[in-house]
Structure formats: structure tokens, C-alpha cells
Write a structure and sequence with these properties.
By secondary structure, the chain is mostly helical. The chain contains seven helices and no strands.
Length: 165
Amino acid sequence: MKNIRIILNRFIESLLVLIMGALTLVVLWQVIARYVMTNPSSWTEELARFMLVWVSILGAAYVSGKKEHIAIDIIQQRSSPSRRRRLQVLIDCIIIIFAFFVMVLGGINLVEITLHQISSALRIPVGYVYTVIPFSGILIIVYALLDIFYPHTRENYSPALTNSK
């Protein structure tokens, strides 16, 4: 199971690096076109905005899977190892419920609603941009399930979370 997490992390890392690299090039092209050639491209601003949406939401799923997101963990720190583990499972279950209903189902609904809207500069369906929401929701669910059933596979895992008494 650790291999699944490693493969998933590498895939998402590569995708994020690719999108960030493309975003950098698009913004650089916009600056060059605007200030050097005095002829700004109309499509670069919209593409940069769409890529920023993808980087933000996909990055949130990635950070959530690595357990490096912002968390208030004072209760966990003051709990016994067995209680910590139960609390972490409860938190992961709440995350799964949220990700399923809000990100997966809500994201699919948003994609369906916006699939027929065409972006002004790129002339692509806006729904394509929002496909990252259900995709990231599924990733968050997979990471949470891995944390519940295979907590020792987490890269930055705390042994206190896996020791049950």
C-alpha cells in the first residue's frame, strides 16, 4: 500500500510541476507580449487563471494527502496514543464525507452546469476547468482511506498515531 501512496504522490507532484512550469511560461509570455511587443495576448490571462485554479485545488489535495495542511491538533497532542488513533480515524471519516459530498458530488454538479459555458478567450467549455474539483475530491478520499486502513504508509507519519493499545 505504501507503493500506491508513493506512485500517487509522484504523479500529483509531476502534474503540479508541469502546470506550474506552464503557468510560469504563460505569464512570462504575457509580460513579453504586453511590454516588449506592445501587443498583449488575450488568451494568456484566461489560461493563467485556469491553471491557477488547477494548481490550487490539486495542490490542496496533495498537501492533504501528505498531512502537511494547516491543522489544530492540540487535542491529539494531549491524548493517549490509542485515543489519538481513534481521533485520527474520526477526522479522516469526516474528511471523506466532506470530500465526497462537497467536492465529488458538488464538483460533478458544477462541471455539468458549466460544461455548456464557453470561455471567452480560449473558447473551451468552462466545465473542463472545474473537473479538478471532483478529481481532487477523489484523491482526498483515497488518501484518507489509506490513512485509516494503512496509517504506517504515510510519509510523515507519527508512530504515536499508529500505536493502538
